[in-house]
Amino acid sequence: MNESIKNLLERRSIRAYKKELVPKETLDTILEAGEYSPSGMGQQSTLMVVTQDPELVARLSKMNAAVMGSTSDPFYGAPTVIIVFSDSKMGTCVENGSLVMGNLMNAAHALGVDSCWIHRAREVFDSEEGKELKKQWGVPEEYIGVGHCVLGYRDCEYPTAKPRKDGFVIRV
Question: Which residues form the Nitroreductase domain (predicted)?
Answer without folding.
Answer: 9-153
